[in-house]
Amino acid sequence: MIDSGTSAGAPPLAGGAAGEQAVRDLVAVALDAVAGATRDRTGPLPPGGPTAVADSLARLLRPAAVRVSDGAGSGELHAGSEAGPEASAEPATGGEPAGSGSAGSGSVHSTAGSPWAGVLPERGVGAAAALADLTRVLVAGSVDPTHPWCAAHLHGPPLAVAAVADLVASMLNPSMDSWDQAPVASELERELTAAFAHLFFPAEPAPDALVTSGGTESTLVGLLLAREAGARQVVCGRNAHHSVARAAWQLGLPEPLLVDVEDGRLRVDRLEIPERAVVVATAGTTDTGAVDRLPEIAECAERAGAWLHVDAAYGGAALFSDRLAPLLAGVERADSVAVDLHKFGWQPVAAGLLATRVPVTALEVRADYLNPDDDVEAGLPDLLGRSLRTSRRPDVFKIAVTLRALGRSGIGALVERCCAMAGELAEAVEAHPALRLWGKPTLSTVLLRPTVAGDDPDGDALVAEVRRRLLTEGRAVLGRARVDARVWLKLTLLNPAADPHAHLELLDLVAATAEETRS
After folding, report:
1. What is the distance between the alpha carbons of residues 371 and 385, in angstroms, rounded to a whole number?
2. Cα(519)–Cα(513) distance, rounded to whole angstroms?
3. DSSP annotation string for 55-101
4. How far apart are CA 193 and CA 387, in angstroms?
5. Which of 79, 91, 132, 310 makes the best surface tag, with the fewest CB within 10 Å?
6. How far apart are CA 58 and CA 46, in angstroms?
């Protein structure tokens, strides 16, 4: 009988019966550490800025080290008498087995006594100690996306069911580059991508979709498919995500031709499409959440014979909601669509998809050890053509578990809740005597500017300082955006469980901080 456990003295693996119990025990350790560190938190992020965060980690990794500030917000660590993990008397359970015969302090590669011995010790401190110590530091030193005053980015709190599903996937560790490493995960991915393909392209006979790491990869692949179809010039609005220009560079294409925007949206009357082009429209811009006029852009692209890629990384989840789906009218006329589920979708990073009007064939490649011709002919699925990556996590699992748990309408209700809160917050900004609203939100992004900043460029420095002050004091995590040649504070609401009253208190905090900063 084959033993799926580990040899005596070796750290337990995550799989098998023994591994299951080890994971249960370590999860309990981790959750206890999370609970303890969470009780000590005083806000959405740690106060003190980068130096304080680095110091807190250094106290664990280099307890005898001294940090000497360089006066620019960063510091240099100087090791004193090293007394970190090397001095631990705890047995190396879950770390390096005692008496393993590894290189001693005389080895040229030994880390004993080095300034980095806390993170790469010569001998481990044990699984429970390492997990508890670093978990406490991580919780204490991280931003908390569940906090209502943490609203800077498209960075949402994951659903509990998605986080636990991610743990299960990590335990089993399927690798999505060949069927014999991920039998059922690859079949689940086939089912889920087919569902998403038909969600975005319901009238097409054979739409397709790929699981990606997020909008950046989805846009890269979308433009790659366009290039392989003959496109040689990217055209996008000035509101497009920076990943569009990066993808053009990576693919050896010229810099994108930029189209002016108005009210945060691409101006269709300024859209000139050259021959052999790919047009990128945005459904949910990073700065304002605006959705480009997709039907009109699609009409222009079709007349020019251009590929149309829609970056719906932010707004794509509107299709889960019958009420919000009209925002994406025209998306079905695109050739490729990017959507992120670690934004609206509440997945742990990373979780993205690229939907395409027709089957994806441009990524196909042969590697005899993964997809030999005779295996494919015999019926084994070929996974290499499903991604630019070779080894990749089964991110489909957490997505599938979440969608099965909540259903399309359940996710849609969460999206609606966030967008409704943004509308209420915008009304509160308009009514606030010390704040100015940029415009009515389309999705869940609200831009505001303290009235004391005025409407001239000099006020931009004050707006930026308000944001940095709240950040370094650990009181609030706000974003910033340059729109209409001015700097605005940005609130992106992705927490459907947030208390709207807390958002109103945040407005008062911003106004008071702006007044204090001015004086």
Report:
1. 10
2. 10
3. HHHHHHH-TT-EEEE-SSS-EEEE--S--SGGG--S--TTSSPTT--
4. 12
5. 91
6. 15
User: Residue 398: helix, strand or coil by DSSP?
Assistant: helix
Type of residue at 94: G
**Strand pairing category for 479-483 and 445-450:** unpaired
- Tell me how far apart the alpha carbons of residues 337 and 335 are, in angstroms, rounded to a whole number: 7
Query: Which structural domains are found in the chain, ordered by start?
Result: 21-51+140-158+408-518 (3.90.1150.10), 174-392 (3.40.640.10)
Could you tell me how many residues make up the chain?
519
pTM of the predicted model, to two decimals?
0.91
Q: Helix crossing, 458-472 with 500-518: angle to 10°?
A: 120
227 closest CA partner among 336, 321, 319: 336
Angle at the Cα of 264 from the Cα atoms of 261 and 265, rounded to 5 degrees: 60
Condensed to tens digits (0 to 9), the pLDDT of residues 10-48 reads: 899 998 888 999 999 999 999 999 999 999 999 999 999
In the numeric block, the tokens 């009988």 are attached to 1
- Note the Cα 183 to chain centre separation in Å: 27
* Of 139, 157, 148, 127, nearest in space to 35 by CA: 139
Q: Look at the alpha carbons of 198, 199, 203, 209 in this order and tell me if their dihedral is positive or negative.
A: negative
pLDDT, tens only, 333-369: 999 999 999 999 999 999 999 999 999 999 999 999 9
Over the Cα atoms of the chain, what is R_g? Answer: 26
